[in-house]
Structure formats: C-alpha cells, structure tokens
Amino acid sequence: MATHAPTRAPVPVGPAPAADARLAETIVGIRDLNVFYGSFHAVSDIAFDIPKNRITALIGPSGCGKSTVLRCINRMNDLVPGARVEGRIDYHGVDINGPRVDPVEVRRRIGMVFQKPNPFPKSIYDNIAWGARINGFKGNADGLVEHCLRQAALWDEVKDKLKQNGLALSGGQQQRLCIARTLAINPDVILMDEPASALDPISTLKIEDLMRDLVRQYTIVIVTHNMQQAARVSDQTVFFSLNEQRQGVLVEASPTRQLFTNPRDQRTEDYITGRFG
Question: Considering only CA atoms, which of 89, 93, 90, 70 is closest in space to residue 80?
Fold first, then answer.
C-alpha cells in the first residue's frame, strides 16, 4: 500500500503588499546564471528580476542554491576558491561581472547582512563610523551614526552606551547593529542571508518590521527557510528546488500572495504544503 508524507496546512499569507512587485522597476536582472564550485555545477540556468523598493524572498529546500545565488548578486562568490560564475547579473543595466567593474564598488552599492550577527570587536559607534570612513565618508560621523541607528530601530536602545562594545549587545541588537553598519555605506540594495534564523521570536519580528520600514528606501533580497516569514514580509517570492543532478534550479518567481495561494507549478505547491522538502 502506498504511503504519503504528512502534509501541513497552507502557509498563511499576510496583508497584501502596498504595490505589486510586477509593477515595480527592475533594479537587478539575472539571466542564464550558472555557478560552479570546482567541477560541481551548483546552480543551473537561473533567471529572474529583482524589483526596486520591494522585498524579494528566496525559498526552497536546503542545498538548492539560494545562498549561492544571493552571493552572486554582490560578487561575494569571487572570494570562494574554485568558484566560477557564468551568465549575466545586470545592476541598473550594467553586468556586474564585466571586466571593468570593481567588485568592491559592487559590494558598497549592494550590501549584505549575514546569518550570524558579526559586529566588529569595536564600540557601537565605531561599528558604524569606522566602516563608513574606510568607504570614503568624510561628513559628520555623529550624525551618520545616529541616523543609521535610527533607521535600524536601535537608537533608543543604545544612545546612552555608544562607547560600549558592540559584542555586548543581545543577538537581536547585534543583528540590527550589523544592518545599521550596512546602511552607513549608503547601499542601494541590501542582501540578507537568513538574518533572523539565530534569533528568538521577538527579535525576529523586530527584524521583519525593520525590513518593511527599510524597503521604502532600499531594495531587499532575503534568503529564508521560514515560509511563514517569506509570506509575511516579501512582495515577491522565488522558489528554488533541486533537479535530478542535484543542481539548484529556479521553479517559480511570482508575487508572494500568488505563489502561496495559487502557485503556477506543482512542485511549488508540493513544497509549500509539505509534500516534499
């Protein structure tokens, strides 16, 4: 007799975003993206657009290439020995992998927040001011620090202890400090790789609320294993899976509400209802 994996209830989708991701200007366009680590073909023929001033969530089972694709968007894979990237990633119409493009400038314009909070072993103040200075900032450091901490919803919690080591903060505060540090270099796009996976539920909700505030000024791309989180915060969701060769492939990129309520591909429906993954 055939057996079936237990299924879970459909993921509840939060309030509809203020604007449809399909109507927004494209800020990053990915075409025919293939990534290799040595002889291993990790992701195959990825293509989707990232809309400006929207949150795009990348979801899918472990090992399907979500973080690999995210790292391609600001050329972080350049730092991985044996990694090779093929295809185009156009940022404002310019291929970021072009021979005349400075990867350091790419990473300034396309900032990144990592899974584990990683403040510098410096004061809260210097976590923001030092990073900005080494990226050429010559303005009012006090004003910059306050502005970025306010943007990261952290100012009221730390304004009386700016000389305290950033590592003394709680995990959720450290992650918001890392977001403030990213904002200090005035990026255009913010990449977030599982930014709340190491945090408690209250800190997670603070990060989610922060993302919805920041997207008014920035474009955000988030990798998450938490489908409820993707449904709550994102405007567009991109679902990755694995093919028979264990390569990461893109299955569907759709407005979030559509993907979770009326997916175009059966593999998407099977994943979000728990039939696999």
Answer: 70
Q: Count of CB atoms within 10 A of residue 44's CB?
A: 18
Mean confidence (pLDDT) of the chain: 92
Q: Which range has the worst mean pLDDT, 93-97, 101-105, 128-132?
A: 128-132
Q: In whole angstroms, give the CA distance from residue 47 to residue 81.
A: 24
Distances (CA, A) of 224 to 19, 40, 61, 199, 235: 22, 24, 10, 13, 14
pLDDT at 33 over 90: yes
Class of domain 21-272: alpha beta
What's the sign of the alpha-carbon dihedral 167, 168, 170, 172? negative
User: What pLDDT does residue 24 have?
Assistant: 79
Query: Cα-flanking dihedrals φ and ψ of residue 198, to 5°?
Result: -100, 10
- Is the separation of the CB atoms in 184 and 144 below 8 Å? yes
pLDDT band at 19 (very low <50, low <70, confident <90, very high): low
Q: What DSSP character marks residue 15?
A: S
Q: Crossing angle of helices 141-151/171-183, nearest 10°?
A: 120
| Residue-wise pLDDT tens digits, 52-91 | 999 999 999 999 999 999 999 999 999 999 999 999 999 9
When pLDDT is cut at 50, 70 and 90, the band that residue 7 belongs to is very low
The structural domains of the chain, with segments of one domain joined by +, span 21-272
Instruction: Check: CB of residue 150 under 8 Å from CB of residue 131.
Output: no
DSSP letters for 198-265:
TS-HHHHHHHHHHHHHHTTTSEEEEE-S-HHHHHHH-SEEEEEEE-TTS-EEEEEEEEHHHHHHS-SS
Q: What are phi and psi of 9, to 5 degrees?
A: -65, 150
